[in-house]
Write a structure and sequence with these properties.
Shape: globular
Structural class: alpha+beta
Mean pLDDT: 89
Number of helices: 4
Order of helices and strands: EHHEEEEEEHH
Strand content: 35-45%
Strand order of the largest sheet: 1-7-6-5-4-3-2
Number of strands: 7
Length: about 150
C-alpha cells in the first residue's frame, strides 16, 4: 500500500470551504472523473463515475471536517484505494488530502511508486479547485469565521 498526502494553508475560511464540499464536488475538483450518478445509502453516498473509460463506484462518508471515500466497485485497476479530504481551522486554515492505494497487479510494488506523482497531482488539483470555487462563491478570504 502506498500513501500520498498533500496539505495546503489557504485563505478562505474553513466554514466557507466546507460549504463547497460534497461527494460530487470532490470528484469534480479532481478534473479526471466523469460523474454519472450520486445516491445516498446506508453506507454514505455512492457516486458512480468513470475514469479513462473504467466505470467505478466511490462510497463517501461525511466527517465533521470533510469526507473519507473508498473506491469499492469497478476500479479494477486498484486492489484498494482510500482517500480523505479534511478542512481544519485554527490560526490558519489547512486543507489536507491523503490517498492510500495499491494497484491490482503482480507489479503493484512498482506501479504504486510510479503513480505517486499522478495521485499527488490529483490531490493538489482537488484542493486548488476547492479553494478557487470557494473564492468564486464569494466567501471572505479570512480563516477567522469558523
Amino acid at each position: 500500500m502506498h500513501e500520498v498526502e498533500v496539505t495546503s494553508v489557504v485563505q478562505p475560511s474553513a466554514r466557507a470551504l466546507r460549504e463547497q464540499l460534497s461527494p460530487q464536488s470532490i470528484l469534480e475538483y479532481a478534473e479526471i472523473y466523469e460523474i454519472h450518478t450520486a445516491e445516498r445509502t446506508a453506507a454514505g453516498t455512492e457516486v458512480t463515475a468513470s475514469l479513462e473509460g473504467n466505470e467505478l463506484t466511490v462510497v463517501f462518508t461525511e466527517l465533521e471536517n470533510g469526507y473519507e471515500y473508498t473506491f469499492v466497485d469497478g476500479a479494477e485497476m486498484f486492489e484498494q484505494r482510500y482517500s480523505k479530504l479534511i478542512v481544519e481551522s485554527g490560526d490558519e486554515t489547512r486543507v489536507s488530502a491523503v490517498a492510500r492505494y495499491s494497484f491490482d497487479s503482480v507489479w503493484s510494488f512498482v506501479l504504486d511508486r510510479l503513480a505517486a506523482g499522478t495521485v499527488t497531482k490529483e490531490l493538489e488539483t482537488t484542493i486548488a479547485n476547492l479553494v478557487e470555487e470557494t473564492i468564486d462563491a464569494g466567501s471572505e478570504p479570512t480563516p477567522s469565521d469558523d
